[in-house]
Amino acid sequence: MKKIYALLILCLFFLTVSAQKYTLPKLNFAYEALAPYIDSTTMYIHLNMHHKAYVDNLNKALAGTPDSNMRLEQILVTASKQTEVVRNNAGGHYNHSLFWEILAPNAAKAPSPELSLEINNTFKSLDSLKTLINQTAASRFGSGWVWLIVTPDKKLKVTSSANQDNPLMDKMNSIRGLPILGIDLWEHAYYLNYQNRRGDYMKAIWNVIDWNAVSKKYNEALTSPIMKYLKGENWTAFRNFHDAMTDISMNAQKGDMQPIRDKTAEILKLARAMDTDPIPTAYATEEVKKAIKDIVADCTQLNDVVVKKGTDAALKEKLSTIREPFKVIMDMMRKTNPETK
Ligand code: MN3
Questions:
Q1: Range 235-340 classified under CATH 1.10.357
Q2: Which of 325, 280, 318 has the alpha carbon at shortest distance from 299?
Q3: Of the four, 66, 92, 259, 314, which is 20 to 30 A from 16 by CA?
């Protein structure tokens, strides 16, 4: 009996240890330090109730599972394979941890020279970047986040995600990358001070966004191993082909064949790129490889029809043959990632 009791205590101990794998971070400043832009009560509740709930629920959901040893980033990049509870709470923990790190009283108002240069190259100026972020925040319906990310090809992009999703997560429909700046768009982040005025909150928050912290994150992102991982996962060649094909197919359905005539050479090039670029391991089945070869062959024939000034009917017929191998790839991606549309 004593033995069983001791074993129980031991189990409880391990459960408690593993249940505390993820911990609530400490703020680098006092709750009231960001006032008047973010008030003390909001900061307190946001960290100790909202963020704490994500940490607790994540620990609870992972306790005793093989995934309990995964790093947070590992969980996020495979989010589509996680349960909804894990996905939401892992996202919530990661997003808020990042948010606290880039906020500061007496925040640095200018990015590092390297980040400034990249911002100016991409968005023209820091002010136009802020405007774009504010516009993106305004157009996010409901709860979510707005991000400045570094993509695997080291470009800056502004994106937005719903709920506690973020740009690390594996979803075919959004651009992936490592976030270096994230702003919480949930009402709990601003309601006490701004009520429903998200725009006012977004204007004010720039006073406490610390560009030193963002610049540091930018430097870390450039050499992060996650970027290498995402590069393999982001199947840009397929995305490019998919976008171009969608464009001409939509026009063809409306009976306008001119875009096909204008773009077949480009589409053939994109198909060939798909054939020569490495396929992300998750999709690299024999079926997919064969489908790509078929697409290249079909696109070559489609281009021949255009070069020989074939009829619209001949174009339509060729276009329809591409659909079959295209569907093979889309089905594979849907199987691998339920969120692919
Ligand atoms: Mn929040």
A1: no
A2: 318
A3: 92
> 83 alpha carbon to ligand 1 midpoint, in Å?
20
- Residue range 306-327: mean pLDDT, rounded: 90
User: Selecting from 3.40.30.10, 3.40.50.1820, 3.55.40.20, 3.90.226.10, what CATH number does the domain 21-230 have?
Assistant: 3.55.40.20
- Ligand 1 midpoint to CA 45 (Å): 10
Please give the distance, rounded to the nearest whole angstrom, from the Cα atom of residue 116 to the centre of ligand 1.
Answer: 28
Q: What is the pLDDT of residue 281?
A: 74
Task: Give pLDDT tens digits for 273-294.
Answer: 999 988 877 788 899 999 999 9
Distance 108 CA to ligand 1 centre (A): 23
Is residue 36 reached through a cis peptide bond, with omega within 30 degrees of 0 on the bond before it?
Answer: yes
CB-CB neighbours of 262 under 10 Å: 12
Task: For residue 103, report the distance from its CA to the centre of ligand 1, in Å.
Answer: 13
pTM: 0.67
User: How far is ligand 1, taken at its centre, from the CA of residue 165, in Å?
Assistant: 12
Q: What is the pLDDT of residue 234?
A: 66
